[in-house]
Amino acid sequence: MLAACTALTAPAMAEEPKFGGTLRIASLQPDLDAFDPLTGYSVDSWEILRAVTRQLVTYPGATTDIKDDTNLVPDLAKSWDVTPDGKTYTFHLKDDVFFSGPTDRKIVAADFVYGIKRFCDPNKQVAAINYFNLAISGFVDYCKEFAKVPTGDLAATKAFIDSHEISGVSAPDAATLVIKSDTKNYDFLNILSMNFVSPVPSEIASRYFPDSAEFRKNFPSSGPYYVESYQDGQKLVLKKAKNFKPESDQARKAYVDEIQVDFTANGEDSVVQKIEAGEADLSLYLEVPPRSAIRRFQNDRDSQIYASNSGSANFITFNARPEAQSEGANALRKPEVRQALTYAVNRAHLVQSQGGPVAAVPLSQIITSTILGHEPFDPYPTDGNKGDPEKAKALLAKAGYPNGLKLDAAYRTTAQFETIAVTVKEDAAAAGIELNLIAVPATQWYAFIQDPSSRWDISLGSQFSPDWQGPSTRMLLGGWLNSDASPCGTGNVHSICYSNPELNKLAAEAFPSDNPGPIWAKADKLVSTDLPWIPLFEKRKIALTSDRITHWAWSSLAVQADITNIAVKN
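Request: output the structure for the sequence above.
Response:
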């Protein structure tokens, strides 16, 4: 298996990259989960947004491994200045960059200001608000006022944005953007590299509700491609923008002339068959290809399979909202019950269910292997990562559940998550924990998790991918688990609602530090022991492709294929 992993690292390319042709993508889901820089926060939505958005700074992609795409380069900003205290950044924009699609006007600094002011729209707020709560001066106060605006009223939303400012964001002129923070942040440029921080023309976006079908069809693109057509649940066609100037973009080569996303596949096997038949070049939303398909490609199409360590992980979260008052939810508030559950999990069994070491490795801590501060650590070790049912039973008894415990367990209805759900249910039963599985359609997953009235005690459908490789620890220990950044309530990722003052203090030390790694490592040991969630396994990203691919690239942000740097046979 080790030999197989090595062989999957980087197949040799048959041809030099050539421009032209169409990249065809088969989607497992019947539509994009999000297609707006405001709301897109899955690796799959980011893969597509990579083609139609640009940021101040970005990553150029990597042909070797996802973790190698860590070198920030200028994108729409040609340069920037930083004050000595590290709190104020002044960006100078390029003068040859334009929107495409519903408008082809020049991109100006005010478009970034408007894009950021959209973040708190009560109709649909930015998907990672925790970053900006701490990183931009005046952002929290602005959001509190914006929350008072009634939903469902586009005119009221526009009036608020037009009449209110964020003190830390300004555009002194068309080519200058100033962003201020109350503190120095070692990862400030990384935060700005995310798709959220994209320019948006107010005269277009203000006409539509965020990420609505109308917005998608009239997507104002700042990237090398624009939306030529979009049909709900059918097809998305992106075409090279006529006003895209390759010399202005050192990150996206934009080899292909057109990108087509087909939403009509009706299952994993259908997606793989389209790729094997040459009807598609890549997949979308195929988290882990079927094991049989991986073996076929390894044996017969080894130049058409790519794999990379990704730093991504799957885990079990708890419904910690105050509204969750079921017996199971209250039981999980006891540390002994969370410890019992982690001992009940057979991580070796889960890894095997995902396809073995080629696809995943056991995980017992919050920080994954490609993230700053990672030091291998297992606070609750078991022989061969197989779990310890007897220890789990003893902990349950200590917590007051000598006869075991029943939990409502929600999961997404995809093959990967169904496998995880069935595997965990089987192993938990041996430890006296009975799981009542609740299936939730993948397209409804995030809405279900965020709804306070939804019935569930644990989620078997939780996962993350680093928002960037390397120094992205803020996402987890400084974001999702930091109650100063992610207070319990609307927008709290996976309804984790975790609060640990000691963690928050360590995070506050890490943000301005010139050497945050050791601080994050200490925080990881603290929190991984406390179990705000149950780590399961770290994933490797596996991509199956057609034989039309002549040049491959990974994206750090998308944590999978970089569709702007892939070339195909014409």
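The mean pLDDT is 94.
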